[in-house]
Each structure stands twice: as C-alpha cells, then as structure tokens.
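Lab notebook, bench 4. The sequencing result for the construct came back, and we need a structural model before the next group meeting so we can plan mutations. Quick request posted to the team channel:

Model the 3D structure of this chain.
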Amino acid sequence: MQLLSEQELERRKDREELYSLGINPYPAESFVINATAEDIHKNYENSKTDYKDISIAGRLMSRRIMGSASFAEIQDSTGRLQIYVRRDDISTDANPEFYNTVFKKLLGIGDFIGVTGYIFTTQTGEISLHVTKLTVLSKAVKPLPIVKRDEDGTVFDGFTDPEQRYRQRYVDLTVNPEVKNTFVTRSKIISNMRRYFDDNGWLEVETPILQAVHGGAAARPFQTHHNTLDMPLFLRIANELYLKRLIVGGFDGVYEFGKMFRNEGMDRTHNPEFTSMEIYVAYKDYIWMMEMVEQLLEKVTQTIHGVTAVQVGGKTIDFAGPYRRLTMFDSIKEYAGIDVSELDEQGLRDVCAKLGIEVDASMGKGKLIDEIFGAKVEANLIQPTYITDYPIEMTPLAKKHRSKPGLVERFELFVNGKEIANAYSELNDPIDQRERFEEQLKLAARGDDEAMAMDEDFLRALEYGMPPTSGLGIGIDRLTMLLTDNSTIQEVLFFPQMRPEKKAVELTEEEKIIVELLKVKHPASLPDLKTETGLSGKKWDISIKGLTQKGLVKVTKEGESLLVDLIDS
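Done. Here's the predicted structure in token form:
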C-alpha cells in the first residue's frame, strides 16, 4: 500500500475537484506552442511586434497571489518566463470562478499549464507574458522539492543529494535545470564526432549486443539465456570483432556508437553499462590513428568550447595536438623508477610485492605489468598523453610491433589520469590470432575471468583475409566528464545504475516508542527497555517481534543479560 504525505493527499483532492468542475487535468488534445522562454528573453526587445500573440507551455514553478491578479513563473525546456494572470482575463462566462478556484486553489507548483497572451515589460523591467487564456495540461500529484534562489542566483535548500538526484533524474532536471547543459554537451560531442567520420566517408553501422561468444576486450561479461535456441548469450563487452568482420567484407571504414556491458566494479569512473565509440579504417596503422585522434578531439573541443584548452578540476588541459608519446616500459621507468622490460612473471611479482601492489595467482605477465602501470603511472598523465607499444601478453588482438620483439602496436590515450581511448594496428594474421586466443584460454584455466574466449567464426573471417587496419575505441562517458568538468561518471549518465531503493518501513505506534527509546540509548537492557516503554506484556512481545522481523532491531545475549540494539541500515 502506498503511503501518502499530507501534500500528496491534498493534491489528489485537487485533482478530483478539477474533474468535478468539468476540467480534465490530463487532456488528450495537443497544445500549440509558438515561442519558448529563451526566444522571448533573447529577441523581444528587438522585435516587439512579433510577440503579440504568444502561446507557451511548461511547469508552474512559482506564484505571487495578489487578490484579483497574480504573478507566476512558467518553466519550459529552455528556461523560465514570468506570467501575469488577471481574474477578469481568464475567467469566462462558462466558468466565472476559474481564477479564484482553479488557478488560486487547485493548481500548484509543478503542474503543467499552457498559456496564451502577449509579451510586455513590467515597471521593474521584467519581460512577462500577460495571460489571456490558461489551460491545465497535467496535474502533478507529488510536490516538487522547493529550491530557493535569491536575487543573485544563490541557491538555498537545493536538491543536491547525489543519490536522490541520480535516482530521480526527472526531478533533478526540473529543479536544477543547469544539469541539462551536461547532457546537451554530451549530445554535441557525439554529433560532432559522427560528422567528422561521415565527412571522411566512413560508414556508421550497428552490430549485435547479444553475442554467442563475448570478445574484443578483457572483461567479465553479463550472461543470459535464449529459451528458443536453448543457448547462453552474453551482453557484449565490445563490438570490435564484428566491426572487423565488416572490414573483411569490404568496407574501408566503419564505426559504431553503442552501449557496452561489463560485470565489473562500480566507482567514480565505472558503470556496468557505458557508451563507447569504435571505428576501424582499412589500410591504416596506429601511427596514423594517433594523428586522426588529435585532429578529432581538437575539432570537437574547439566546436563545443570555442577553444582547445578546457578547465578540468582546476587544471587547464589542452586538446590541441600533437600529444606526448611515451612507451609503456618508459612510462613505468619514468614514474616508478623500475625497468620491467626484461622481467619474467616471477620478477614482475617481486616488483609488485616491493611496491605493495596486490596480485593473485591468475595474473600473467600482461596483467602484472598493467597493475604496475595503473598503480604508479596513470595518475601522473594529466595532459593528453599516448602510452604506446604494449607487451604482447596484454593485447591479444593487436599486431606485433614492426621493430620491437615482444611488443604490439597499440596506444592508449590518457587525459587527467584516466584512459579515454584505446587503439591498435589490428592483428590480421589468422594463425597468429589463433595462437593468441589459445594463450588466453590458458589464462582462463588459471582463473582469469576476464580472459578472452576463442571465437572460431572471427578466426574464419580472418582466414578469408583482412586488409591492414587500424582500430580505435573512445569512452564517450569519460570524454564527456572531461569536457563538462565532472569528476564522476554518474553526472554524465541520465540514469546511472543504482542499488535497489530501500523501502520505507511502516511502524506501529508501539514499535515507534521502542525505536525512539533506542535512538537515545542503545544497546539497552531488554527488561529495562520493556519497563520504560510502559507496554503490556502482549503488546511488547508483538512489537519487539515485529521490529526484529523488519530488520530494525536485534536481541542478543551477553552472559545472563538480554540486550536490544538498533541494526544499522
């Protein structure tokens, strides 16, 4: 049963009253809009004659009732506009009490209304809409949080709790409209990247999200089951292997923006589903790709911000190329003071132990080097930096280095201490690729749940021949974090993954008495607490049993004493 607050109950009464007056608070008809708040504020002063017959809709966000006339604010998708409402203007012969009853009593903050009228300037210089007709469009039965702002724009009693904001993004966007800017920027990042690729003649494609064999990255997948085929399927951890199949098929360049899914930990930079852009271009290598990425990010940053240098967490980061290039081994030598290039697996384990880096038996050479790099190097890479030439064990899908044995032609782009792009000269030798997959199977047998699976169909595609190819993946969420100066991935996702919401527990009056006493003193002696509550034996037994079943209190025995304590939620 839904528990309703006093305000919620009152709003439901208002809804019923609207129906009783013959007003449908959820009308089916379209409401014609011919202006926005932003347009009016921006252009009215220069073109006043164009604003004599205006129709606008949005949420009612504030009211100042002054007898037979009122000022209010309406908020649409572009901003807020003050409206002026007079009793004699909106009341009709059919409904002479429309102003007094509907507007003043039955409408509230958060309700959607449509208003028609003309724009004027108040004596205080405020651009406003003089309302000649008001239409109820949607009655909100749950009140919005009241966010107060002073004349300088300073916010009081703001809707700022991160968990509430992420769970109720619809409320966040309404009462904190500046949050929209982040998501507008995110959209612009994607659209500008898409435009750059299209201008170069590369084709946007779609590849399967449900895959029989997960591959293209080192990660733990989500698994499901297809009933009709009676087979397991995996949510993709990457789309790489399918995109390279299309290169085999004859496309010179393909790219995809899409969701990836990895069953891994969550923190300020990780969400179990995230957006990635992957692109593959035939007859290119990773050196060419470095230059392309520089051009791409410079163009995107310039288009969005007007400059290539952006402020991120108090630091100025410049996306203008060329970017610094540093090999994986040289970066560890520079920031950790250790040359790991000639070390075997045991030597790497000794280094990890010396540096206090936690490892386990499932980790091979590649994982161990990656752990050292992550612990000692990443945080130092603030300005855009390419880390290049990775050990072959770390990258099963990249081509062997043309001049450095034991390495592959790979780079990762790091900015502000985080990886935002990963690229290879793609491995197109089917025999070599099979051997690399077999090495991954050995790691899986050792317990590495992120090792890649054998993909026979992908190997078959390579056997038909794939031209020299360079591939790139960019994490859209992390790039958006950089270009909007946000430190957590949750701020750039409309609906980040959250733990299940805790349901409010309904307590009896007797249970409330016990809980309140325990809040003052806990743990408490059971006999003393029972006496203090003043409850009868039967009511005490029912109440203490109810609280334990609801997971709110626990009863423990210490020696001969019984203690009652609150359970931390």
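The chain has a mean pLDDT of 93.
Will bring this to the meeting.
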